[in-house]
Design a protein that fits this description.
Distance between the termini: 48 Å
Shape: globular
Structural class: alpha/beta
Helix content: 40-55%
Bound molecules: pyridoxal-5'-phosphate
Radius of gyration: 22 Å
CATH topology of the largest domain: Aspartate Aminotransferase, domain 2
CATH class of the largest domain: Alpha Beta
Number of strands: 17
CATH architecture of the largest domain: 3-Layer(aba) Sandwich
Strand order of the largest sheet: 4-10-9-8-7-5-6
Strand content: 15-25%
Amino acid sequence: MKAFDIQKIRADFPILQREVNGKPLVYFDNGATTQKPRQVIDAISHYYSQMNSNVHRGVHYLSQISTDAFEVTRRKLQDFIHAKHEHEVIITKGTTESINIVATCFGRTFIGEGDEIIISAMEHHSNIVPWQMLCDEKGCVLKVIPMNERGELDQEAYKSLFSSKTKLVAFTYVSNALGTINPVKEMIDVAHSQAVSVPVLVDAAQAVQHIALDVQALDVDFLVFSGHKMYGPTGVGVLYGKEDLLNAMPPYQGGGDMIKEVTFAKTTYNELPFKFEAGTPNIEAGICLNEAIDYINEIGLDQIKAYEDELLAYATAALAEVEGVRFIGTAAEKSSVISFVVDGTHPYDIGVLLDKMGIAVRTGHHCAQPIMEFYGIPGTVRASLAMYNTKEEVDALVVGLKRAIGMLL
Ligand code: PLP
């Protein structure tokens, strides 16, 4: 493992050297998507200039090397999340598609009228809407784990939501809008200790780039995340599922690659993981995600988390000094997301003014409208930090925020 050298890390990300609106870019929208290191960018160029070919079908050289590289990523992902089997790693378009696969294939097969699905009050829309669509179709019921003012899930209420009709639990590891880190292992154990063990889906979209994941230690049934939030390319993500569950589910889409044999009378489906990977995947993204995983592994998630935790504490203390700032999401266990509102101002106006100073933050509901409704606000300003951010950038945010507030009030 390399020492944590912030200047070297920053130098690896070409976009961090650019200016926006005549000011050095300060990028604090990492929860939406992270920037890409040179290693990933070069791999994409190398793929198209030296390897481009379809995977899993050609006998020719280029197809073989592309297929091999694509499968290297799968093995890398298996190691990264410590899955028992390589074929438990389904390569998808991203978190949203992965959740939709489970809602469609597991949901339509194993969840029926009157059955219950438990989600939490702090889900991203992509972990709400697919379940609502299933409920509309099947007549099943969505139950929601409530949270307190700090943005922590009420664990006693969670336990009381289970009944003999509960068929699935789905919740986020880290809230994209609040930064809360949920007690995932404990919550999985609660679901598994019911009279009939209830499977659990964990949305790790905001965890995978900050916290080391071990699906076997967690004993999670499904785990989903996106490549673009972990310094990798857009258009690729993961659905991890336990082998027996994935085997019991029908395919998601029909097409090439997911079949064993097709006649007009009958089609037999391919084995895992290909059963869930119909059609040509995003080959370049799949292959180049490999570089992002290597990049993270070389620095190590333990070092990344320690650095980000320090930065989070620094940023929280610095922003707390700004008059009028009110934090939304103050859980005891937090990842590097800081959401806040400023009394008397609209988050959008703050975001626009910060942008003029080269500072990129996210404003709005962050695809988590129920959270905003809970707090009775239209949205927040969100600064989400990554391993390449610095205390100097936090200082720039504080100065910029004070200026913006001065202009607005
Ligand atoms: N879940 C969480 C917690 C997220 O933060 C996001 C994206 O912001 C998603 C799901 C959806 O991810 P994607 O748009 O990559 O599918």
